[in-house]
Amino acid sequence: MMPGVVMMENGVRAPLPTNHDRDHSQFLVNGNGAFAPQSTSDRPNGAPVGSGLGDKGSSAMINGDEAGDGAKSAQPQRINTNPSRMNDLPDEIQHVTMGFVPLGLLLSRLAQKTHNQLGDEIMALAKTQLPATAINGNSAHISAATDDTSPENLAKKSRLLNFVQEKHAEWVKVAVIARWSRNAESVSKLIDLMGLLRQQQAKYMELLDQMITIKSGLAFARLPNPDLRTAHYVLSTGAAPWMPDLNYLEPPPLTNKEQLQWIENVNTLLSLRLNLEDYDSIPYHFRDYTIHSGRVTFKVPGEFEVDLTIADEDFEKQFWFIDFRFAFTPAPAELSDALRMYLEGKVNEALEKDGLNGCFTYLHEFVLTHKISEYMRQALELSRGRWVDTLKIERLNRAMSIQYWVGRYPPEGPRSWIILGVHSGRKANTAEDPKSCSHLTLRWFKDNKEVMDADIPLNEADISTEDLLNRVIARHVNHILFSIYSKLKLNGRYIKREAGLVLDVHKDDPTQSSLKMQLGYGYHMTVGISSATGMFSMSPQTNITWLREQRLNWNSKDPVPDGLSTLEGIRCQYFADEIKRRGKGAGWFISKAPAKMDTIKESLKLRELGQLLWLRRNGWTDQWYIMVNLSLSGDKWWLMEIKSHDKGARISSCTSLPLSSNAPNLGDQFFSDLTIFTAALISQTTDLRTLRQRRIKQVTHDGTNYSLPASMKVPDIFIRLSDILKRPSEPEKRAASWARDFVQIMFKGAHKSYGRPQILDRDGVADTGAGTKEKSPKESLRVFMDARLKVSDASRFGLLKGHVGRDVAFDRRLGVFALRLEADIGTSILDTLAHRLQAIDKLADCIDAIRRSDRDIQCEEITLTKVVITYTDKSRSEIKSEIKSESDTLEQSHNKRWKATLSLNPDAIKLSFEKYNPQLRALDHFRHLINSELRCLKLPFFLTSTLPVHRALDAVEDAWDSFAANNQGRVEVFAYHLDWYALRYYLPGPNRVISSQRRLSLQIRLREHNEEAQWHVFREESGAVKRPDDEFKQALDKVINAEDRQWQSLVDCAASKTDNRVGELIMAIDESIRRLAMQSPTLVKQNQPKTQMQAKNPAHASYHRNMATTKARAQGSQAVVILDD
Q: What is this structure's pTM?
């Protein structure tokens, strides 16, 4: 094949000049237009089918010269369907295109090169320094016609001339090549023919070698031609006279005794010769010999045994070969006749030339060669058997190479092999040692590097290629496993014995070598390496180990670092799967990473950041996570609060969890403890942050908390009671005299809570039963906290016994309140605590107010959430001095004890009266009073002092029911405040015209007169005239200034003490007004049913008054009516 044939850009050769007189109608720019376009994959060297180099008419050229080829171009075109040969050549000739270079590519590359070099030369010439005279303009004396002969200018011209000459030479060569390309078609044919001739010559030489080999191989099978004539005569007559007779006398046959004697003589001669004559010349390895049966047997352990004898008594004569046996296995038990004859001749020849040394050397080298052949034979059997596709065997010059783990790594990956050969046994620059001789040697190349200190013994007595490979591979496997083990052992996780790691290695059996690694609590993984394939095998086999094993086996280039990362990855994946599998039932799940690695490293300032696992629990708020840093230095647990912003996530708080780095037992107890501990930390973090935001001082103290696991500690929080009781509207703290000023808050537990049970569909949507659907409520996690405070005087709460509520207990012996606080995780319990403490504060105020009051009021029942009291309108002194006597019904009703209930809710105190209590109309005012700054301080006074007023107002309303039913007038009662009430009378005018009706407004006010609280009853109308002079004024004056009055007259006002006398005053005034109503002019009486009576003004008549007037007042009823605000 002729290299360097120049091709055109379209894949065909063409000359450089252009003939414009040619007919180009049948050509295109890049191919022959007479043929259909073909894909480049079907064209040799980019040429289209039909544009072969042997076809003139099919070579479409850009600037080709086809002058003189008109006859050829006029010939009909023949389409070639075989792109591997030329169009006009037979099928035997293959068209050669290898090594062809397109002419267009050569021209473009040369043009580009010339252009680039020319630019470089121009830039270099421009940078050349000019002479100083030319720069300064001092060359005026030189004629303009004279050239610049300065050295710099001459150097520039010389450099430019050399560049032009060099480029000219290159382009001349290209021109020659282009002109020579006219004959490229013929040369290409010559190349194809030359290739065919070389192929035929190679076949001829190969057949000749085969014939010679066959002929030489039949030499041993050739038999001489039979002598049929002599055989026929001898068989017929028994003699052949033409055969010579030497007249030898046959010796007499030896007897057995003579034979034994002869053998003994030979043995004696052998013994004498070996012990006396040849003692110093016996090779070192022939020292082990035995003489018997007329022969000497030399034994070389692990190699051979040879039997020699002598044929003459002269010790100068040579030994003779008798027999040979191999001293290793596997080997043939007996030699074949051909091999025996061959060995006999060679050994006798060696004995003749070099004696016993030559015999040993020849047989030793023969055995070594045979051992290598045996190793080779077994290796080939292994490559076709159990080790198929894993060994690559190559026979070398008296050596062999076995590459194992073929296909284990990518083609560019490392390779490992052994070379078994013969070592001469000689050492450089040392004297020859008679004990040393050639021997088999093994060279081991591991990962493309020879292992110099490998101690791999060769079993000379037992030849086994598989055992040899196992010994080599066992050391390779041990190296890989030990390297992984060493790197793992250097990490803190295994230095601190937080996880188990065991290496078991065997020198001869790689299948027994393994690395046992602990993945989790009571769970281990065993890593081994297959001796045949070199692939990692991991057990027990799971989905995790299988995927990682495949990735390690097929994508790894270095098994040590890749194996290290794979084992750690399996451990991390196992931990994550165990968390996912076992934690699901406990409400734990794996979440996506809420923050970037850089943010975590910056916040935690960790030296080593391994694989991160983010955990969350159902019921947590969105910002709380547990981050587990799984690394070789030890697993670390962090409780983190991460808040998202527009610029990214930010770590608000992080707390290291004191969990052991040992493999945890991921059971129900672990997740239960983790839930409780994290709930305690989240609750404490939230509470401390809230305290700091509210600027409340706190102190933490480590105490014993039996609600937490023994290994987990959460300190208690101590805060001041005065800081909790202080309201935002209060400028200063208010100290509670009933308790000490410290409150202890400790964590007690957590539990999950759901909404009402629902039946969910596949999408987690529940049917409400009304035709609509709603999403199921999320599980919420609630935490329990205990708050404890000690009272200053336990006797104040003497009525409290044990559990005074669902979540409050009081120990009278210790004088300690224990409050069980409950809140959703992530929310502070301070508000709840404040409400509870305020309720206790209110309870203490209420008890103090009742205890200090001089009114007739008593506590019937006291709990933290409810106080039941009974009262009358008398004072305690009056009760003591009152003489019991029988009186009328009204007097008995005055002595009735009324019941009220105080519900101490967290947000407010709620007061409730029993049914038919006359004070129901002022219930809102009472509630407003007890929830004001006065609290319960004035409650006993107003309960008892307003009772006669409300009884009288009830009696007034009852008395006017019949008047209202007959349209003779009506009355309206207003309770503006606890110390301010109003009565409005409406009487019909003349002819009962509504527009002319008469109205009277009475005010009942509690005022202080002469340092004493008194009820003042007076008239006050709306308008300019407050007290007009009319019939009402006359009626009022009669009552106010009555002679037998029990109240005090203050001109236009009547004053009475806060007892039954104010009720008598109100009833007397009402009676005088009723008389006016009966004296008013009347029209036709309209008998309307009572249910048709005119409704009271809804803007002034309260709901409590309607409840009191629509029912009969049963004096003996004790039911309590609880009305909401």
A: 0.59
